[in-house]
């Protein structure tokens, strides 16, 4: 078995043994395994993505219903990126489990892998996150019971699910902001290229009659079935552009706007919106009607295709000439969505160790940087293999060394209400009042209520004697549900208005911040985390080595600062983020 297969097996199988000796299994977990037959495959002998989407939706729905105890419907699906294909004769393994419940909706995580029975190889195909809503009963709206995470992986997904939900809610606003950007106000000159293909040539329209085999046990059309039909017309549209068989690489986040039932006529329309050298975006719309009724908008989706040559490399695609008015609008929107896809790929989707220490900040990627900032801190906090390094007067220093990365955590409790602690700790401009490593701290930009950009100056730790400065994005979050912590996350970013200078050594923070927990109405637990970078390590290395206890004095100063300012009206009014 190759390294990827072993990693996948560890991800899926790592058993947790309960006190009674039994192997723990998530109560919402549902698994499906299917052998890919010729009837499931396309012309290349690879599984049709539409068929895969149907299996994924079915598995996720059963997981959601296992948790809800009532019928559920697909509300939305986040971006799906297909990493590998699956051939005829290979096995598709799908695992779905509920990560978190939010009142009447819940997030279901879906992991798809492929297994070759003859070589014993396994590899990951894709991962997806779907939102399901519990259907209203005769008694009214269903209120879902909370998900109780039991393992480290479940705690991590449970915590980060709140951030993913936050991103879904602002997705439309991100598109509006990008489209208002001056650079997208004009259609790119390439539309006038002599060799450009008219978008009208790629237009596809098809109708499907929803029959009982297409519906679920609630008599609604399977969300996966609708996605499969949409993938079919999108593939035809992409083929018409390049006169070749395209490969679907990704599907953007989409929402189901309304249900479809048995007897509906489903009208599916697709057209190529734009091309980008080696890829194209196809827009698909699904509308439904009954005899004598008007069309109902069911769903819109945007799919990215490539065309591969004989060596499996992406071919250069012809340019597209958009239709007047709506075609130009779709053309511009495709550019905006590509920007969003790139931001997600390089800020969110990559592994934390692959994220550059300092990412350029601009308003268009702010939401994703904020998401990454908070999620990275939550991932670090969810680790359960922290080792107590030292303790002094109820201030504890923990370390975690993994994959050649050193992280540390400092923890203490204060007799201050949690809301006051959160407001004071999230104002970095006041940190110099208790942390001697913060010589200066200035607000560069208050982005919104939850995010602020700071410039921080710290003492010299280098032989050259230069003081360090950091450009930090501070992101704060209040609890999503009772039992969640308050969070203040920090990471480095770069700003063209604040380049590094000869007078300062520019430092970097990859992941740092505070998790603030309410112990009681008057007692709060503070946990400070930091993934040590070369610029940060000198400030804490002596403490980790046991040669000093400056961490203790710093956090005793923090406790004193919080207690002295807990009743301050300024603290209550101060919302710098």
UniProtKB/TrEMBL annotation:
<dbReference type="GO" id="GO:0006631">
    <property type="term" value="P:fatty acid metabolic process"/>
</dbReference>
<keyword id="KW-0719">Serine esterase</keyword>
<feature type="domain" description="HotDog ACOT-type">
    <location>
        <begin position="26"/>
        <end position="138"/>
    </location>
</feature>
<dbReference type="InterPro" id="IPR040170">
    <property type="entry name" value="Cytosol_ACT"/>
</dbReference>
<dbReference type="InterPro" id="IPR029069">
    <property type="entry name" value="HotDog_dom_sf"/>
</dbReference>
<comment type="pathway">
    <text>Lipid metabolism; fatty acid metabolism.</text>
</comment>
<dbReference type="GO" id="GO:0008289">
    <property type="term" value="F:lipid binding"/>
</dbReference>
<feature type="domain" description="HotDog ACOT-type">
    <location>
        <begin position="200"/>
        <end position="311"/>
    </location>
</feature>
<dbReference type="GO" id="GO:0005829">
    <property type="term" value="C:cytosol"/>
</dbReference>
<protein>
    <recommendedName>
        <fullName>Acyl-coenzyme A thioesterase 11</fullName>
        <ecNumber>3.1.2.2</ecNumber>
    </recommendedName>
</protein>
<dbReference type="InterPro" id="IPR006683">
    <property type="entry name" value="Thioestr_dom"/>
</dbReference>
<keyword id="KW-0496">Mitochondrion</keyword>
<dbReference type="GO" id="GO:0006637">
    <property type="term" value="P:acyl-CoA metabolic process"/>
</dbReference>
<keyword id="KW-0963">Cytoplasm</keyword>
<dbReference type="GO" id="GO:0052689">
    <property type="term" value="F:carboxylic ester hydrolase activity"/>
</dbReference>
<keyword id="KW-0443">Lipid metabolism</keyword>
<keyword id="KW-0597">Phosphoprotein</keyword>
<keyword id="KW-0378">Hydrolase</keyword>
<dbReference type="InterPro" id="IPR002913">
    <property type="entry name" value="START_lipid-bd_dom"/>
</dbReference>
<comment type="function">
    <text>Has an acyl-CoA thioesterase activity with a preference for the long chain fatty acyl-CoA thioesters hexadecanoyl-CoA/palmitoyl-CoA and tetradecanoyl-CoA/myristoyl-CoA which are the main substrates in the mitochondrial beta-oxidation pathway.</text>
</comment>
<keyword id="KW-0677">Repeat</keyword>
<dbReference type="Pfam" id="PF03061">
    <property type="entry name" value="4HBT"/>
</dbReference>
<dbReference type="GO" id="GO:0052816">
    <property type="term" value="F:long-chain fatty acyl-CoA hydrolase activity"/>
</dbReference>
<dbReference type="InterPro" id="IPR023393">
    <property type="entry name" value="START-like_dom_sf"/>
</dbReference>
<dbReference type="InterPro" id="IPR033120">
    <property type="entry name" value="HOTDOG_ACOT"/>
</dbReference>
<keyword id="KW-0809">Transit peptide</keyword>
<feature type="domain" description="START">
    <location>
        <begin position="386"/>
        <end position="564"/>
    </location>
</feature>
<dbReference type="GO" id="GO:0005759">
    <property type="term" value="C:mitochondrial matrix"/>
</dbReference>
<dbReference type="Pfam" id="PF01852">
    <property type="entry name" value="START"/>
</dbReference>
<keyword id="KW-0276">Fatty acid metabolism</keyword>
């Amino acid at each position: 078995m190759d390294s990827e297969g072993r990693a996948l097996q560890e991800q899926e199988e790592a058993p947790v043994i309960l006190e009674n000796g039994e192997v723990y299994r998530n109560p919402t977990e549902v698994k499906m395994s299917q052998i890919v037959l010729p009837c499931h495959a396309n012309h290349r002998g690879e599984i049709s993505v539409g068929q895969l989407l149907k299996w994924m939706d079915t598995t996720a729905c059963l997981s959601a219903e296992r948790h809800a105890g009532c019928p559920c419907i697909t509300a939305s699906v986040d971006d799906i990126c297909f990493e590998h294909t699956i051939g005829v004769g290979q096995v598709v393994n799908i695992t779905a489990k509920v990560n978190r419940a939010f009142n009447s909706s819940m997030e279901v995580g879906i992991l798809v892998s492929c297994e070759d029975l003859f070589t014993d190889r396994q590899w990951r195909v894709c991962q997806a996150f779907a939102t399901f809503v519990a259907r209203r009963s005769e008694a009214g709206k269903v209120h879902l019971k909370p998900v109780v995470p039991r393992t480290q992986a479940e705690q991590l997904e449970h915590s980060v699910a709140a951030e993913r939900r936050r991103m879904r809610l602002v997705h439309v606003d991100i598109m509006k902001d990008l489209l208002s950007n001056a650079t997208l106000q004009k259609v790119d000159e390439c539309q006038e290229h002599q060799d450009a293909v008219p978008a009208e040539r790629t237009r596809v329209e098809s109708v499907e009659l929803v029959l009982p085999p297409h519906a679920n046990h609630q008599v609604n059309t399977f969300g996966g079935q609708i996605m499969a039909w949409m993938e079919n017309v999108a593939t035809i549209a992409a083929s018409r552009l390049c006169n070749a068989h395209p490969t679907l690489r990704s599907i953007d986040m989409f929402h189901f706007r309304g249900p479809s039932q048995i007897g509906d006529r489903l009208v599916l329309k697709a057209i190529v919106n734009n091309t980008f050298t080696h890829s194209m975006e196809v827009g698909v719309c699904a509308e439904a009607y009954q005899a004598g009724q008007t069309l109902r908008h069911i769903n819109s989706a945007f799919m990215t295709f490539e065309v591969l040559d004989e060596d499996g490399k992406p071919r250069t695609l012809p340019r597209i000439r958009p239709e007047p008015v709506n075609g130009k609008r779709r053309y511009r929107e495709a550019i905006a969505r590509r920007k969003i896809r790139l931001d997600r790929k390089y800020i969110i989707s990559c592994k934390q160790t692959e994220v550059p220490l300092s990412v350029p900040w601009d308003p268009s990627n702010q939401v994703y940087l904020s998401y990454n900032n908070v999620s990275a801190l939550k991932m670090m906090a969810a680790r359960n293999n922290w080792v107590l390094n030292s303790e002094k007067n109820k201030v504890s220093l923990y370390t975690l060394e993994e994959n050649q990365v050193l992280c540390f955590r400092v923890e203490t409790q204060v007799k201050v209400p949690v809301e006051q602690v959160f407001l004071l700790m999230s104002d970095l401009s006041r940190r110099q009042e208790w942390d001697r490593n913060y010589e200066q701290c200035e607000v560069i930009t208050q982005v919104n209520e939850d995010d602020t950009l700071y410039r921080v100056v710290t003492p010299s730790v280098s032989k050259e004697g230069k003081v360090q400065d950091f450009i930090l994005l501070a992101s704060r979050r209040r609890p999503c549900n009772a039992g969640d912590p308050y969070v203040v996350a920090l990471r480095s970013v770069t700003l063209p208005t604040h380049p590094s200078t000869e007078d300062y050594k520019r430092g970097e923070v990859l992941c740092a911040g505070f998790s603030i927990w309410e112990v009681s109405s008057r007692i709060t637990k503070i946990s400070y985390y930091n993934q040590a970078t070369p610029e940060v390590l000198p400030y804490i290395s002596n403490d980790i080595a046991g040669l000093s206890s400056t961490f203790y004095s710093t956090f005793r100063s923090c406790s004193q600062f919080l207690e002295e300012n807990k009743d301050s009206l300024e603290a209550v009014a101060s919302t710098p983020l």
